[in-house]
Queue: 4 jobs
Job 1
Amino acid sequence: MNGKTIWIIFLSGFWFVLNDGWYLSVSVADDHDDKENSWYHKILDWDDDDDENHKRRKRNRKRHRDNEHDESYLKPVNNPTYKEECGGCHFAYQPELLPEACWMKILTNLDDHFGESIELDDDSKEAILDYLKANSADYSSAKRAVKIMESLGNHVPMRITDIPYIREKHHELDPEIFERESIESLSNCVVCHTTAEKGIYEDDNVRIPK
Ligand code: HEC
Ligand code: HEC
């Protein structure tokens, strides 16, 4: 072996150790994005599989974060027929506040709606029912909707304010406040929950009117 060959072997060995070392440290620091951009990775173009996995994990983490954000809140009402026909006398409650069976019960008893008689043409009624059913608490993963479903069991109340979870959340309110004209009833979610229209019922946004 001449001097040149020895040098080449020595340098190759050095190169190998160097890369392995880097590879290990990158695996440990997998949560960082620097792997995709590192120069040696581009030159060597190895472990493509690992790269794919890395990207997929990154996508999943992002999706998970987005969901977490959405699922804290209820979806704001976005159906014009529902808003118009059911939001005139009171707040247009989010569909996720009741299960499908309750909405069905309410819509089949419109001639005696808490002392009111509500007239709706068949098309509007169908559009409203479709909207309420498709977006009801049954199919929601929002944390409040899940709590509502758990707390109801097999009960089918006509009121959101009859759901045990909702009653329990308000049981510390002094009954006398409902004599105030500004409040009147627990059904008036919007007077205390300043962000109710946005589907946000966090306690930070509650303000009880005088
Ligand atoms: C003519 C007025 C009027 C219209 C229109 C109306 N409601 Fe009501 N609704 C009432 C009254 C009055 C109450 C009882 C409120 C109370 O006790 O404070 C009520 C209560 C409710 C409640 C129970 C609220 C609670 O206490 O949890 C739901 C749910 C409800 N309505 C859904 C609907 C739907 C769905 C529609 C559309 C098909 C609709 N309402 C249209 C008058 C109306
Ligand atoms: C008189 C004022 C008032 C009205 C009306 C009212 N709430 Fe509340 N709500 C409160 C207060 C106060 C709390 C408790 C906040 C706390 O725990 O500090 C609360 C708590 C809640 C919570 C639990 C929030 C949490 O962070 O755990 C939900 C969900 C809720 N209300 C939904 C509703 C809905 C839906 C309606 C209408 C059907 C409604 N509320 C009507 C005052 C009100």
Note: The two ends are 96 Å apart (CA to CA).
Job 2
Amino acid sequence: MKITNTIIIGAGVVFAGLCYSSVRAAQPAATKSVLEGVFNEEQQKRGDAVYAAECASCHGATLEGGEMAPPLAGSAFMSNWQGLTVGDLFERIRISMPDGNPGKLSRQQNADVVAYILSMGRYPAGKTELPKEVELLKQIKIDAAKQE
Ligand code: HEC
């Protein structure tokens, strides 16, 4: 009896492991990190302008959040996004923001505003801009920022 149970449980664990690895294999691995300088200062400046015009009224001038809108920087924001990818954040914004008028911004504007949000999260600027293709953005993982 005991032995059968062990075999059944063991087989279950192996099966779950196989399912998990095939799900993982279907997604391209996130090979880069926001810690590596994935946007540049120019893009960050453009994103600042987009943010001020389209997002600040709800999310606050310094991304602190507003009456209804959540913060886009700091620990509450990071606990939602850490471990996900820049592509996930980009898609979230592209599909649902600005609240009440999603789809208003171009892909380029969305990528720029994501660069600005990352810069405000104290991630370093680098040499190249964030791409606006979601498949490429999904390769960039959102790791925790280094503490000051
Ligand atoms: C009219 C107010 C309003 C505007 C303008 C607005 N947002 Fe939002 N945003 C919200 C609200 C409310 C939520 C939470 C409810 C929801 O998820 O839809 C939210 C949620 C979010 C989230 C998810 C945060 C999280 O941690 O889950 C992101 C990211 C975001 N907004 C980005 C943006 C960006 C970027 C812009 C500008 C392009 C923008 N928002 C403009 C009201 C707004």
Note: The CA atoms of residues 50 and 113 lie 6 Å apart.
Job 3
Amino acid sequence: MKLAAVVLGFAVLAAPAFAEPGPTEGGVVYETRCKMCHATGMANAPLIDYLAKLENSAILKALNDPAPMMAGAIAGLTDQDKRNVAVFLTKKTLPASGDLPEVKAE
Ligand code: HEC
């Protein structure tokens, strides 16, 4: 049982980036890449309640030009991952941008 849980956990972490647009996919990014700091305020990270009040543009800016504390932890996220997690946090729809599709809030 225990080993299965470990193997499953590893499979989730090792899963490839999520290509589908949507806040559900963004929730997975949050769980695996953001929560360890933003659910606890670790290293003075602002809490998720605060992030939820930001605009999508502010989240994307923080992800595209991250604070040094965050840079390593979020390395490798695709533009789609960033847009998904922004909509997951703000619950505001992001319009299409360039060849990236709209991410609809639920
Ligand atoms: C290693 C810990 C850590 C991880 C992981 C992390 N962050 Fe952060 N984040 C921080 C810290 C610390 C700050 C504050 C930086 C500062 O103000 O200098 C911050 C700031 C931010 C801000 C800016 C808030 C503002 O005031 O404008 C946003 C947005 C944000 N994080 C979103 C995310 C998202 C989304 C993820 C996951 C994809 C993430 N962070 C992962 C530590 C982390």
Note: The mean pLDDT is 88.
Job 4
Amino acid sequence: MIISNKKGFLVRYLITLVMLYTTLFSLESKVCQKCHPTIYNEYQNSIHSSSYYKDDKIHNAIWSRHPLHKKGKYSCAKCHTNEKQSASIDCMTCHKISSIQENTVSNKNIYTKDKKLLYSAQKGMEDKKLIYHEESSFFGLFKKSVGSPYHNIDYSNKAYYSGDICMGCHSHKQNSIGFTICKTDSNNSTKQNCISCHMPSISGSATTIRVTKTHKYHGFAGVHNKPKMLSKYIELNYIKRDNGFDITIKNLAPHDLLTQPLRVLKLKVTLNKKPLPLVTFVKVLGNSDGASVPWLATKEIKNSMLKANESKIISYKSMLKQGDELQVTLGYYIVNPKIAKKLGIKDNIFRELKSQYFQIK
Ligand code: HEC
Ligand code: HEC
Ligand code: HEC
Ligand code: HEC
Ligand code: HEC
């Protein structure tokens, strides 16, 4: 009797502790919401806010089949979680990265130990630090506060301007055999970088206190969220030939158009509303036995994905006449339907990246 009471108490005590911990924990990003509501809402809709295996069913489906899963060693944490490795990526995960350590297997984020310090980028502030203070003017008659009462900001970290800040998690990943299963090439020194394409300036204030016309989009356009925001970086066109016609696709991104090996890209073309043969672009990993799961892969069995800045030409046999109507659609499945079936993932629909209509002249 006494024992079970004690047990009951212990269980209740533990539950309270866990609840307290999770409230305290979720409070951190919630705090940012108070003064950065627009950015917070965008972040909530981005895949970064559900990168943890408990929040992302696709990631979870792969993780639960991984050999380390049985051992309970969540080896994906360094990129799929926050600094404490206990929840999805949050505001602090990015804004506390002081530098990136480059490694062969995968890179590593080095976080600042300064509790009040955040890093960011702002034009005109490139070599400054903003420490919260009050300034008085007109012999002390007027007072105004400068900076954020909640945190200090260091604007001098170049990686927040070049996009290198993304490369701790996005650069590359090798499996335990030393084979690179995914990578995101970067030419971050040029004008276009991860930030300029995936976090464009859009209307709405960055903070409620210092009102700005625009802010950097925190929904991180990509395959899960707002793919069409990136459609201007894909060019679709047609060329008339004597024995048919060609469709050209140009990838203006400095990385494979889709980087994750689960994805599959499809080109759908209709001529006068009649569908022509479907074309598939995919990267298949495997070994000497054929296609395999990423952790057993030693090579690419097939790779027809559009590479960084690559143009592809697809030829069709149909003849084009003046007045004909071509509808060209480039789209994708987040998970290759063949794999989705095996993983039991439903709701895996075809999504459009870009669709263009041409009337033949
Ligand atoms: C009490 C209000 C308040 C809270 C809470 C708050 N901030 Fe801020 N934050 C501000 C203000 C005001 C600024 C603008 C400072 C300036 O430029 O004068 C700012 C600026 C920033 C910037 C830099 C903006 C730029 O110009 O590049 C970042 C990054 C940032 N905050 C992140 C966060 C994060 C992450 C959290 C949660 C941990 C947070 N803030 C919580 C008020 C707040
Ligand atoms: C010139 C614009 C451009 C630049 C620069 C760029 N990207 Fe992309 N990115 C795209 C386009 C276009 C896509 C494909 C469309 C989509 O996923 O919605 C894409 C897709 C992605 C995806 C989703 C891929 C997948 O399979 O899930 C990630 C992740 C990504 N980019 C990260 C990055 C990182 C990190 C950098 C910096 C090294 C970067 N991008 C630089 C345009 C760009
Ligand atoms: C995946 C990384 C990442 C996450 C997650 C992230 N940020 Fe940012 N944030 C950045 C980068 C990079 C910049 C600098 C962009 C620039 O100015 O070029 C930035 C800029 C900002 C700015 C300045 C925006 C502007 O237009 O001046 C604020 C404020 C901010 N972040 C707040 C937040 C808050 C609040 C959260 C959580 C809700 C958050 N960030 C989550 C990477 C991130
Ligand atoms: C702490 C690691 C980490 C950092 C830092 C980080 N990312 Fe990510 N990012 C991820 C992970 C993990 C995913 C995939 C999450 C998932 O699907 O579960 C992701 C997904 C994305 C996607 C795909 C979005 C979609 O809708 O499919 C884009 C685009 C992206 N990140 C861009 C960026 C950019 C730009 C930066 C730098 C400003 C950045 N990330 C910084 C880990 C990170
Ligand atoms: C080096 C950083 C890193 C590590 C470690 C990592 N990932 Fe990822 N993962 C990413 C990034 C970045 C993305 C976003 C897509 C892309 O860039 O290909 C991603 C995306 C994914 C996706 C696609 C999710 C979706 O919603 O579409 C799956 C599945 C995934 N990772 C599985 C895993 C598993 C399982 C592990 C651990 C065994 C792992 N990852 C470890 C960086 C990493």
Note: The pocket of heme C (ligand 4) is lined by residues 47-48, 51, 56, 59, 79-80, 89, 93-94, 109, 165-166, 168-170, 194-195, 198-199, 220, 222-225 (CB under 6 Å).
